[in-house]
DNA sequence: ATTTTTTGTGTCTCACTGTGTCATCACGGA
DNA sequence: TCCGTGATGACACAGTGAGACACAAAAAAT
């Protein structure tokens, strides 16, 4: 997969972004996207499995990166803090390498079909975090719930970061989400 | 919408469940489902918007019910407890009125396309809970995060309930998920 | 340098999805 | 009995996603 023309990947992604903005998601077909990017419809489907996937260009390596990031967190760190730290790291990197991220995220938030796919991607990341936490020795049930919660924080942090338009760094957005989270859950720990 | 034949809804749902189990989701077409239920393909799409929706038969009224359930919780209850109590109530009712729930849930968990739709439904419920909590006076950010967390607990509780095969009631499954949750999140409240 | 293999693309084809439209049929009320 | 409404069937159509095959260019092997 790695040898595919990276430029074509981005040409398709940019073409799709423009077309979706210009004409609306439903009015755009895979053929339109392919034509604007200078390939055939059939080739489009070799780059992206379906019409939705093109809006998530550049995120293919995130799951393995995240897995490694969780495993790289300082041993002894409690599960939730581990997950949040890894997500802060990976999220910061991801954001830096994206193109037109804000425009694509706006489309994803606005179009139910894309939002649906977005949730699947978050769920996949949760799976990865869960697996990595389990590997670190966490309890199975705890790992699953912690992973899901951490991704709730991640999602909210991303929304916050986009709203700030560069005036806030991603790690502090994660921290803010974590604070809201801790305030909302009545802790059982009473030191 | 109310005058539609309820029996046909369930005939289609049962036909789909059987066919998916027999031949696998991909090998089954909307035409097959319709034929087994004794209607035409076109009529299938009048009962269910697409091929996925049929596996979620009987859940159409859940969002408004949930909204009311949140509003009905004793005033003064903190947000997360409110959401969990409402979900326990609505979930119990839902489970009681379903047919072939376990078989359908097994298919949903196994087939990515169905799981994707399932996540959307959970997200819709989270929206509803968020709106209802906001209406009760909760902070906007808090309401959103609490709602999402509560639905993480709901999802885990449902999985646990299905695994117990009737030996556990739904409310206690919610309680168990809530406990795991509280243990995982280091509380900031130190009374 | 020539052959072989791999990789991306174009072309053609096909089953299936989801929707619009129109005709029909059952049923309840005036 | 006639009429209106709402469910259903019949037909048509754009679009999706994928298989099969050929072809060109690059990479690897000889």
TrEMBL record, chains A, B:
<dbReference type="InterPro" id="IPR001647">
    <property type="entry name" value="HTH_TetR"/>
</dbReference>
<feature type="DNA-binding region" description="H-T-H motif">
    <location>
        <begin position="29"/>
        <end position="48"/>
    </location>
</feature>
<dbReference type="InterPro" id="IPR009057">
    <property type="entry name" value="Homeodomain-like_sf"/>
</dbReference>
<dbReference type="InterPro" id="IPR050109">
    <property type="entry name" value="HTH-type_TetR-like_transc_reg"/>
</dbReference>
<protein>
    <submittedName>
        <fullName>Helix-turn-helix domain-containing protein</fullName>
    </submittedName>
</protein>
<dbReference type="Pfam" id="PF00440">
    <property type="entry name" value="TetR_N"/>
</dbReference>
<keyword id="KW-0238">DNA-binding</keyword>
<keyword id="KW-0805">Transcription regulation</keyword>
<dbReference type="Pfam" id="PF17754">
    <property type="entry name" value="TetR_C_14"/>
</dbReference>
<feature type="domain" description="HTH tetR-type">
    <location>
        <begin position="6"/>
        <end position="66"/>
    </location>
</feature>
<keyword id="KW-0804">Transcription</keyword>
<dbReference type="InterPro" id="IPR041347">
    <property type="entry name" value="MftR_C"/>
</dbReference>
